What we know:
Blueprint: H1 3-8, H2 11-20, E1 22-25, E2 28-31, H3 32-39, E3 42-47, H4 54-65, E4 69-74, H5 81-90, E5 94-97, H6 99-105, H7 107-113, H8 121-130, E6 135-138, E7 143-145, E8 158-166, E9 199-208, E10 211-218, H9 224-230, E11 243-245, E12 256-259, H10 276-287, E13 292-301, H11 308-327, H12 338-349, H13 355-371, E14 375-376
Helix pairs in contact: 2-13, 6-7, 7-12, 8-13, 9-11
Amino acid sequence: xxxxxxLRTSIxxxxxxxxREGFILNNFKFECKNIKxxxxxxxxxxxxxxEPTEATLKFCEIIKTMPEWTFVIVGDTKTPHxxxxxxxxxxxxxxxxxxxxxxxxxxxxxxxxxxxxxxxxNIGFVYAYGCGxxxxxxxxxxxxxxxxxxxxIKVGQNVTYDxxxxxxxxxxxxxxxxxxxxxxxxxxxxxxxxxxxEVEYLGKYNKRCLVQANLWDGDPDIDAMARxxxxxxxxxxxxxxxxxxxxxxxFNSQNTFLHRDVIPYYAVLxxxxxxxxxxxxxxxxxxxxxxxxxxVATVYQDRNLQDLVTNxxxxxxxxxxxxxxxxSEGDYEKFLPKETLNFxxxxxxxxxxxxxMEKTHTHMERVFTxxxxxxxxxxx
Length: 380
């Protein structure tokens, strides 16, 4: 039976029926409540239109060896769905959300985001949150994980870190203190590029980490002007310890770990070009100041084919407005298009109802039963 038909039946009836049954998966007996426990820890979220990439396949290997992780891939209309359905069947902790499922589980949000856009990733955030995720790792399908990926998660902990402060501005560029500091982070206010290297080391500080932004070797998704002028291939081997600042700083949606508490205040914003994840990060920092820790590179970014000039054009909105956006102290409406504001209201509404828990848990139970050919438990 198609998932969309299953979801149209009574959610409460399904949950009651499932909760009474036990199941056997690969000869291992467990009650249905343990399916939920499997998902109540850490989630990896991405979206893609490509055939499974090297990065995607390596993350599938990670969820086999690190059972606390569940991998959610959000499809789009151009995604090769059958390839991911096959991949899902081979990986019990992989959940592929095709367009039909997204429209059924989150109809209003899906409609507002639209299709053929990386902002479909927000569906994955809400889905993982509804499943009870404590930590969500947001990645791209060109972020090839190293062996140390996910091995040292600091989110939710009090962290000792190397603290820095920009001398000439109120903004910290996390790439300015690395050896590859000829490039700068996407979304750093360009009005302060000339002085971004003027930082001072303050010593060891402590903070509660709600966002862990791990770096990326290779050809990372940095500022388009930096990529056009330098064509970088970076290695952040010099970064071996967590670091950060009490000042506002950009982070992106590649190889970033987010605490459950911040998810309702973070999104990859649609209709604002390549400021989608950046401005989402600045909104998060308005609600959770001094909550970011940067850390060692744990992926190699083998960048998908990009038109750098188009990227540059899509960052102009940031060159014009990011500084004012940060300094507006939460008064973002003057900078965000009407469509983005409608999205933001709808996105936040998703976290204010128990319905999200019902829908996502029901769907996940079906993934671990119908899709993965889980057999009813027999009496011994």
